[in-house]
Amino acid sequence: MANGVKEDKTMEKRGFACFKLSFVFFMLNVSSSALPVRGFYLKSGRITDFNASCSRLHLQAVPRDIPSTVRGFDLSENRITMIQAPDFKNFSALITLDLKRNMISQIDAGAFADLISLKTLNLNNNRLTAVGDDLFHGLSNLTELRINNNRIKNLSSTSFESLTSLTFLDMSYNRLHLLTKVHTMLQQLPNLLELSVKSNLITSFHSWDLTNRSLKLTSLDLSLNDITVFKVTADVFPNLTSLSIGRIHSKRTAMQWDIRGGTFFSRVSTLDISGLKMDEAAMRPLGENFNPSLTSLRMNAMRGTRLTKLVNVSCSVPTVSRLQMQQNNLHYINAKFFQLCANITEMDLGKNSIANISYEAFRSLPGLKILNLSQNKLAFITPATGNLPTLEELDLSQNYITTLGCNSFANLTKLKILSLHQNSIPALRKCVFEGLIKLQVVKLQNNSISKLDGAFSIHLPNLKRLRLNINKLTAIKRGDFAGLQSLESLALDNNMITTLEHGSFKGLSNLTELQLSTNRIDETTLPERFRDLVNLESLDLSENRVQFKNAFLTPPPFSGLSRLRTLVFLGNGRRGKFSLPYNLLEGLTNLSFFSARKNQLSFLHRDTFNYTPRLQTLDIGANDLRNLSSELFHPIGGLESLYISKISLDSLDFLIDANLTKLEFIQGKLNQYSVLSEEVIKSMPSLVYLNLQGNSFTCDCDNAYFRSWIVNDKQTQVYEADKFLCNYPSELKGKKLLELDVKSCTVNTEFIYFISTTSTILLFMLTSLTYHFMRWQLVYAYYLFLALLFDTKLKNKQQPKRYDAFVSYNTSDEPWVMRQLLPKLEGEQGWRLCLHHRDFEPGKPIIDNITDAIYGSRKTICVISRRYLESEWCSTEIQVASFRLFDERKDVLVLVFLEDIPGAELSPYYRMRKLLKRRTYLSWPRAGQHPNLFWEKLRQALGTKDDPGREELVPTLLDRQ
C-alpha cells in the first residue's frame, strides 16, 4: 500500500537535521546574553530613516523615549506648553527640530545646549512673549531659525550670541515695535543673510538704529508694518538684493522715503512695495535709487494710488522685467496701461476683477514671455494675446471662459505652458491648438469638457503633460491622442469614462504616467487597451467598476507593460465580492508598487504574484481576506513594505514560511490576531516598523516572547505598543499587554543552563551511538510491536474467511496486480481476492482494515518490490501476516518477488530476510519463458491446506537465496 508512505532514508535525514537545529537553537539561547538586542517601541510617534515623527498626537510634553541617535524630530501640532532642560539631553546628532503649532510659552535656559549639530529650528505658532538670555546656547551650527506667529515683545541682549552660523531668521507676526531691538539682534549674527520681521509693530525705519557697520544681509522683509518713514543715511545694506516694505490694507498716509545715497540700494533686484500709498513724491525714489539693478517689482493691492502712473514710472526703470500687480481691483486694461513697458518679460495680473482687455493693451509688450491672468472674470480668450508672439506661458485659470475658438491662440507659436483649468469649457475643437508646436504643458482640469473632437489628434510634437481630469468625458476614442508622440503624463481621472476604444492610446509610445482613477471603466474595457503604452511606468485604475468574473484572463490586460513600476487598483469592489484573476499581473516584470486596497477581496490565488519578481510594496488592506498563504509571497521575496490593515486577518503565521527576509515595514492595523509567536517575529529579520493598532492581544505566556521583544528589541519600532490591550483571559480584559508579567513564563538561571547543557551533550552522544549502531533494529522493533499488538487483539477471535487471499502490494506495483495477477487468479482460476483499494471499508481506520483483511482471508500474498520494502503500511501488513503464520502455525503466507533483490539489500529488513531463509518464494523475473508454470505454482500455493507443519509451498522455480 502507498497510503502514508514515508521513506526510511528521508526519516533518517530529517531526524538528524531536527536534532542539529535543536542543538544550535539551544546553544544560541544559552549565549543570548552576548547578542545585541534589535528592536524598540515608542509611546508616542514613529521613526523612519533616522527621523522621529510625533506630530498631531496631542502630546503635552516632549516624549523621553526617543532614541538620541535621530537626526530629525517632528513635534509639531501638539499641546506642549514648556520645553524643559532635560527634554533634548544627549541629542547631539539632531539636525532638524520642528516645534511649530504648540502652546509653548516657556523654554528653560540651556534646553537646547546639547543640540550641537542642529541646523534647523522651527518655533512658529507658539506663545513665546520674549527671547531670554542664552535661550539658544549651544546652537553654534544653527543656520535656520523660525519664530514667527508668537507674541514676542522683548529680545534679551544676549539672546542670539551663540548663533554665529545663522543665515536665515524669521521673526514675522510678533510684537516687536522698536528697530533698536532688531539692531541688538543683528550685532550678534555676523553671518545672517535673510531676515524677516514682517507684520510686527515697527512704525519707522532709520538706518542709524541698526548698526554702525555693514551687514551681510541679502534679503530684508519689513512688509506689513505700518512704517511711515523709511530713512537710510548710511550704506548698511551693501549686499541687499531683495527688499519688502509693503503694508497691505494700511489706513495711514503715504510712506515718506528718505534715501540720502543714490547707491545704497544699487544691488536690489527684487522690490515689494505692495499696499503702499504712492504719490508722485514717493514714486521718485524708484527711478533714483533702485535703477541700476531692479528687475522684479511687486505692486499688489495698491489702493489709493494712481496705478497707471505707477506702472509707467516703474516701467521707466530700464532693468525692470517682472511686474506683479495682484489684488488691485482692475476691471479693464486699455492700451495706455502698459505704454512704457517695452522691457517687461513677465506680467502677473492675477486675482483682479478683469472682465475686458483692449485689443491694443499688450501691443507695447513685444518681449512678454509670461502672462498671468488667473482668478479674473474673463468670459472668453482675449484677442489681445494675439499681439504677444513671444509669449511662452499663459495662465487663464479660474475665469469664466466657456468657449475656445480656432483663433483663440493665434500667433502664439512659442507658447510652452497653457493653463485653462477651473473654467467652464464644455468641449474642444480640432483646430483649437493648431500651430502651437512648442506647447509642452496643457492644463484643462476642472472644466466641463465632454468631447475632445480631435483636439489632440493634430501634431503637437513637444507636448509632455496633459491634464484633463475632473471633466465630463465619457469615452476615449481611437486616435484621440494620436498627435502627442512626446506626451509623458496624461491625467484622465475624475471623469465619467465608460469606454476605451481599441487604439485609444495609439501614438503614446513615450507616455510614462496615466491617471484613470474615479471613472466608470469595467473589466470589458481593459483587454488590449494598453498595448501601445510600451514605456508606461505608472497606471492608476482605482475607483472604477472593474469586476472580474473569470479566474484567468485571455489576454492579460497589462501583458505589454514590461516597464510598469506602479499599479493602483484600489476601490473597484463596490458591487460586491471581488477577486483578482491569478494572471492579472502577467507581463509586469518590473512592477515595484501594487495596491489592491478596498476591493472586497476574499481570496488571492497563490500564483497571483508569480509575474512580479521585483515587487517591493504591496497594499491589500481594507479587504476581507481573513487568511493569507505563505506560498502567495514566495515569488516576491524582495518585498519591503506590506499593508494588510483591516482585512479580518486572524494570524500572522503565514509570515513564518513566506521567506520575506527583506521586509522592513508592516501596516497591520484593525485585524483580529491576538498572538504573535516567536517564529513569526524571527521570520522578519529586516523589519524596522510594525503597526498593529486596533488589535487586542492574549495576555498569557503565548505572547511572552512578543511582549519581551517589544521592550528589548532595538531594530524594530512597534508603533504605540504601550496602548496594546488584552482581550484574554477575561480577568485581564482591558489591561495593557506591556503590563503582563512574563517571569513565570521563562526560567533563566545558570543552574538550568548547566543541566540543559549537560543533558544535551549526553543525549547527543547517546543518540549518535544508537543511530550509528542500532538504527534499523529500532525501526524494525517499532513495526514488530505494532504487529504483535494487533495479532494479540485478534488471536482468539474466530472470524469467517471471506476471501481466499489478501493481496499486499505497493501502489507503484498496482499495474502488475491489476493487469497480470487479478485476471489470472480471479478471472481464470476463480479465487476470491481482497484488494485494499476495492474491498476496504470506507471510514474505518486503516490498521483495522489491514488486520480484518489478513484474518478474514485464508492466505496473504505479498507482492514484493523495493518500493514495497520501503513502505510503512506494507511493512505493517507483512508483520501482521507473519505473526499469524507463527502464532497459528498455519501456512498462510505466499511471497511473490517482482524484482531480483540481492540479499545485501534485504539485510536492513530483518523479518523479511528471516522468512526467506525458511520459506520458498516465487519470482516473476525468473519465470522467464514459462509464465504458465509461474501461475500454476501460485494456484497450487493458494490451494494448499493450512498445515502448520508444512514448510514448502510447492516445488521451487529457482534456488533459495
Automatic annotation (TrEMBL):
Transmembrane segments: 778-794
GO biological process entries: inflammatory response; innate immune response; signal transduction
Keywords: Glycoprotein, Immunity, Inflammatory response, Innate immunity, Leucine-rich repeat, Membrane, Receptor, Repeat, Signal, Transmembrane, Transmembrane helix
InterPro entries (alphabetical): Cys-rich_flank_reg_C (IPR000483), Leu-rich_rpt (IPR001611), Leu-rich_rpt_typical-subtyp (IPR003591), LRR_dom_sf (IPR032675), TIR_dom (IPR000157), Toll_tir_struct_dom_sf (IPR035897)
Keyword Membrane: yes
Subcellular location: Membrane
Membrane topology, as annotated: Single-pass type I membrane protein
Entry GO MF terms: signaling receptor activity
Domain TIR: residue ranges: 801-942
GO cellular component: plasma membrane
Family per record: Belongs to the Toll-like receptor family.
Protein name: TIR domain-containing protein
Organism ancestry: Eukaryota, Metazoa, Chordata, Craniata, Vertebrata
